[in-house]
Fold this sequence. Notes:
Shape: elongated
Oligomer: single chain
Low-confidence stretches: none
Distance between the termini: 58 Å
Number of strands: 7
Structural class: alpha+beta
Strand content: 15-25%
Mean pLDDT: 78
Amino acid sequence: xxxxxxxxxxxxxxxxxxxxxxxxxxxxxxxxxxxxxxxxxxxxxxxxxxxxxxxxxxxxxxxxxxxxxxxxxxxxxxxxxxxxxxxxxxxxxxxxxxxxxxxxxxxxxxxxxxxxxxxxxxxxxxxxxxxxxxxxxxxxxxxxxxxxxxxxxxxxxxxxxxxxxxxxxxxxxxxxxxxxxxxxxxxxxxxxxxxxxxxxxxxxxxxxxxxxxxxxxxxxxxxxxxxxxxxxxxxxxxxxxxxxxxxxxxxxxxxxxxxxxxxxxx
Length: 266
């Protein structure tokens, strides 16, 4: 009888170890899946970001061309070149190329992998994010308003926060264009509420016509977006709730979609 109990105990111990091993293996697999999904979300944004860079650079390149035309004309016509005019042109060129360089820096930072949580100012990160996507909004005459009561600091992965903003704004832009909304706009509001930092993003595209509305956060769910991957909003929710211990929700307002991001200050 005693030997039977010992055998049962040993078998139970063996089963527990096997179960623990399987749990560890499944956790490791899920982590790898999450990493893959994050990477897919980044790659899905790559094409759109390249398009935004093209929009951002088109105007500066035209400005550079216009700066050289009068100088080129004077050279061909053997007209004297004024020293102050040349210095002013050089100054303008420096300003334009610095702007273009900053755009590339923002683009590079967006695709960098954050290794650790850092303290960063929200307004600075939002400006960096807007610098990437504003060209595409301007092309379609979409007005972007940013309302911020103060410049709060946040501890977290700043590029992840940018990716969430870009995903939400890009989706709003696509729906505004597809529905041919007159006087289209996107509004970002930032404020502090108790011990949280709240970011809201709303548009006037007429709302999300999905029931239940939370379905838009399901993986591979696409809605009114031709060629979409269906992982942008899914990853956004995962980033906010897993990586930043926050909450991402959505509802329809009187004019359009209303996204709300709540993230603890610490």
